[in-house]
């Protein structure tokens, strides 16, 4: 559809449309980007070239994602001490917040059939039955020998696909591609309307907590069954520490807006709202690029991709804008590179006192998708969870994942035992038709791995799982790369650096720009 843009608009749109006035790229509800290769062909790897999940080079199925997870990513295979000495939870939790939440895939909701017993429906069978329609279930198969999960299938639904002009399956990003605090304000005008107090500059709150309008989000075990919190991103209650981040930014908007109202009594409410939003976005961009990203990419990659903001003491504005930079999020970043943070998650979401002592242990596996901890007694626990963000060390970025994430994801008393984030990430990459790890090394101008032995300790396991070194999934190879200081390795530095460079230089409303 033709969109008419106000070229003089002072504020960015909610859905990211009209940011780029030349090609309109970066709006919510548009396809994830595929990287063009050396010959300008999109890098895409579907088994049939158009939509079936990626297969091995020789045409066989790729190894069972859960087996890869068990053999390579089990925390028991890693060092006893996983904690990172430089990164606190304040680092990995906001990363969930800034990063993941800005790139949301549509996954059609179906009833979750966790670990159904019985016949394993193989991908082959599904392919044969449903070759025309590629929207099939793509279950995670759990083998008889699994030490942690009962044998059978765990439900996994393909991300909703649409065909592009060439008839190739593409996935849709529900969020805008910009670092624009859409996690606070939403990526659609409809959601923003739900979040705002009508005819006011404020965002809605209830008892100074996030609003809980009926019928918007679902959650598990809230204090009052209908009270699921709503924020700019639907997974706001996935874990308590994430909900606290949402709440902090939500309140920050209202704090700034109220100050602006006092200072500018003559402004219209809409002006107060938009000016406050603009300031919140500026803070959000500054923190993302100057505090968060250096702890992911390391100093060298930050400089290589020109991601640091200009030092304010230089007294000049930086204007990095380039109308030809396409900010759209790469599918490979969404399904692999940006999921590095899953390895930093720890097993607990504890309450912590002012001296950083744990006062209550909350196991992560008991609080997935539940706003209970933040809603209890009008939010009395919030400072205790908030302190945890600063007091507790993250786990390292590596190939080891805690049991709560790798065996008990989404665990709920009525649907034990749970799912496996690693297996899901691997499967999601195949679902998206994301090319194998070695192909991305090549595209990043890194030497492709020639031998399984290059993976040292894990080479043997990889060799048993994969037929060919080029079959290794991007997220698996990427997380096995070792890097000084526990940043992401060179392939993910390349992909994330490339992505954030575009999100910065492709943003007409970037906060450092003059005027
Ligand atoms: C306890 C904390 C977390 C939980 C429970 C969690 C869980 C999940 C789940 C279940 C998915 C969907 C998997 C799929 O089916 O494809 C997902 C997606 C994702 N996660 Fe996390 N995650 C957490 C923390 C993080 C962190 C710290 C980061 C990054 C720094 C991150 C980055 C992502 C990204 C980029 C996606 C893809 C987003 C999308 O397409 O919707 N997550 N996460």
What does the model show?
With 515 residues, this protein is mostly helical. It has a single domain, classed as Myeloperoxidase, subunit C, CATH 1.10.640. It contains 18 helices and 9 strands. The relative contact order is 0.18. The structure holds protoporphyrin IX containing FE. Protoporphyrin IX containing FE binds next to helix 2 and helix 14.
In the CATH hierarchy, the third-tier topology is known as Myeloperoxidase, subunit C
Put simply, the count of helices is 18
Bound compounds, each kind once, are: protoporphyrin IX containing FE
Strand order of the largest sheet: 1-6-5
**Annotated CATH homologous superfamily:** Haem peroxidase domain superfamily, animal type
Total number of beta strands: 9
- N- to C-terminal distance: 31 Å
- Largest beta-sheet characterization: 3 strands, antiparallel
Radius of gyration: 23 Å
- Overall geometry: globular
Main location: secreted
Binding site for heme b: 342
Keywords: Glycoprotein, Heme, Iron, Metal-binding, Secreted, Signal
GO molecular function, one term: metal ion binding
């Amino acid at each position: 559809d033709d969109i008419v843009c106000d070229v003089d608009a002072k504020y960015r749109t909610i859905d990211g449309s009209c940011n780029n006035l030349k090609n309109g790229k970066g709006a919510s509800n548009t396809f994830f980007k595929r990287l063009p290769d050396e010959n300008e062909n999109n890098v895409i790897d579907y088994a049939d070239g158009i939509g079936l999940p990626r297969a091995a080079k020789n045409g066989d199925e790729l190894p069972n994602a859960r087996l890869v997870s068990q053999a390579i990513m089990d925390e028991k295979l890693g060092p006893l001490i996983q904690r990172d000495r430089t990164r606190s939870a304040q680092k990995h939790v906001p990363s969930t917040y800034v990063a993941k939440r800005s790139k949301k895939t549509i996954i059609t909701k179906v009833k979750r059939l966790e670990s159904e017993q019985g016949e394993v429906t193989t991908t082959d069978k599904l392919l044969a039955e449903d070759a025309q329609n590629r929207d099939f279930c793509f279950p995670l198969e759990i083998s008889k020998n699994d030490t942690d999960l009962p044998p059978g299938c765990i439900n996994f639904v393909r991300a909703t696909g649409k065909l592009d002009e060439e008839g190739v399956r593409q996935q849709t990003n529900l969020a805008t591609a910009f670092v624009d605090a859409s996690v606070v304000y939403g990526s659609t005008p409809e959601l923003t309307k739900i979040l705002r107090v009508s005819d006011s500059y404020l965002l809605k709150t209830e008892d100074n907590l996030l609003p809980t309008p009926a019928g918007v989000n679902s959650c598990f075990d809230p204090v009052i069954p209908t009270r699921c919190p709503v924020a700019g991103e639907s997974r706001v209650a996935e874990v308590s520490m994430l909900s606290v981040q949402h709440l902090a930014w939500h309140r920050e908007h209202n704090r700034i807006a109220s100050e602006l109202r006092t200072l500018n009594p003559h402004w219209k409410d809409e002006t107060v709202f938009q000016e406050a939003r603009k300031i919140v976005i500026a803070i959000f961009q500054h923190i993302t690029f100057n505090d968060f990203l250096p702890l992911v990419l390391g100093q060298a990659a930050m400089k290589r991709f020109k991601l640091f903001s200009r030092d304010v003491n230089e007294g000049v504005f930086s204007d990095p804008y380039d109308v030809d930079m396409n900010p759209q999020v790469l599918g490979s970043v969404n399904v692999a590179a940006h999921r590095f943070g899953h390895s930093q998650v720890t097993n607990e979401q504890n309450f912590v006192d002012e001296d950083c002592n744990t006062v209550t242990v909350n196991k992560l596996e008991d609080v997935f998708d539940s706003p209970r901890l933040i809603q209890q007694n009008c939010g009395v626990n919030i400072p205790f969870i908030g302190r945890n963000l600063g007091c507790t060390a993250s786990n390292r970025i590596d190939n080891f994942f805690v049991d709560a994430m790798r065996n008990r994801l989404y665990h709920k008393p009525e649907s034990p035992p749970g799912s496996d984030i690693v297996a899901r990430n691997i499967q999601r990459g195949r679902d998206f038709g994301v090319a194998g790890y070695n192909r991305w090394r090549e595209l990043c101008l890194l030497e492709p791995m020639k031998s399984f032995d290059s993976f040292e300790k894990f080479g043997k396991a990889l060799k048993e799982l994969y037929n060919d070194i080029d079959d290794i999934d991007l997220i698996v190879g990427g997380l096995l790369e070792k890097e000084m200081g526990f940043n992401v390795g060179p392939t993910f530095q390349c992909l994330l650096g490339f992505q954030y460079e575009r999100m910065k230089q492709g943003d007409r409303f970037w906060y450092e720009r003059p005027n």
